[in-house]
Structure formats: C-alpha cells, structure tokens
Amino acid sequence: MPGMKQRNWGRIVNNASSFGLFGTKNRVDYVATKTGLVGLTRGVALEAAEFGVTCNAICLGWTLTPHQEGNIARHIASTGLERDEAIADLMEARQPSKRFVYPEQIGALTVFLYSDAAQEITGTAIPIDGGWAAQ
C-alpha cells in the first residue's frame, strides 16, 4: 500500500464469495471470513481512494473447481442423474443461471478492474454468480 500511494496508482482485487453477501446454514466459518474480506475491501478502498488506489472484491458464485467436481460426482451417485441434470439440480437453489462461473470469466473481470476504465470503481463487492445476488 505505501508504494501504491506513493505512485498514486494501484489496484487490489480480493476474491471473496457470494457467501460474503449472504448467510447460509452450516457454513458460519466460511461466511464469516468472506464477509470480513468484503468489509476489509471497503475499508481499504476508503483509505486509499484519494491516492488513485482501488480495492474491490469479486464475490464468486459456484465456480467449477475440483471441489465442485467432487460435489457433482457425489450428487450423481446419490441421485442417478446425468451430469448436466445433476449440475442444474445442484444450482437450482442458488444460481439461477444453473451454470458454473468459470475461471476465465473471473480473470476477465479482474483484468477489467485493473484497467484505467475501472479507476472510479472502488470499495465494491461485485457478484459474478449467475444471478444469485439478484434473488
């Protein structure tokens, strides 16, 4: 941060989660850490704003990761559904698009937040979650 302030330019992008915006049962530890990260993002943004430093949090929905692949496999085994049906069934309650967020989409949003076009976007929690935050 000192170097960014000295240069009057900097970008900080935190990977949070939609669970940083919404609570859920049986995940209090995860919700607390992601909510804390969103709060940290906002505080840093305020402290750094006059120096041309931005700080934002990307709040990810369900992202296709090895962990989610395990969830899909377990759901297929317990329901007998085909893969695409199992994914849609898992997504039903949270992610209205019924599709995973892909790492390439997260990367593209991150690149935008590092660009000059995003110089006045700071202190935000930006959902990339297939409509989860719209519910």
Would you kindly provide a written description of the structure presented here, covering whatever features stand out?
The structure is a single chain. With 135 residues, this protein is of the alpha/beta class. Helix 3 packs across helix 4. It has two domains: 94 residues, NAD(P)-binding Rossmann-like Domain (Rossmann fold, 3-Layer(aba) Sandwich), CATH 3.40.50; 36 residues, no CATH class. A three-stranded parallel sheet has the order 1-2-3, sandwiched between helices. The protein has five helices and three strands, in the order H-E-H-E-H-H-H-E. Helix 2 links the parallel strand 1 and strand 2.
What's the structural blueprint in terms of helices and strands?
Blueprint: H1 2-7, E1 10-17, H2 28-48, E2 53-60, H3 66-79, H4 83-91, H5 103-114, E3 125-128
Parallel strand pairs: 1-2, 2-3
Helix pairs in contact: 3-4
Roughly how many Å apart are the termini?
Answer: 36 Å
Query: For this structure, what is the CATH class of the largest domain?
Result: Alpha Beta
- The helix/strand series, from N terminus to C terminus, equals HEHEHHHE
- Shape designation: elongated
Per the CATH scheme, the topology name of the largest domain is Rossmann fold
Rounded Rg: 17 Å
Number of helices: 5
The major beta sheet can be summarized as: 3 strands, parallel
Strand order of the largest sheet: 1-2-3
CATH superfamily of the largest domain: NAD(P)-binding Rossmann-like Domain
Q: Low-confidence segments, ≥5 residues, pLDDT <50?
A: none
Question: How many beta-strand runs?
Answer: 3
Give the CATH architecture of the largest domain: 3-Layer(aba) Sandwich
Determine the oligomeric state from the structure.
single chain
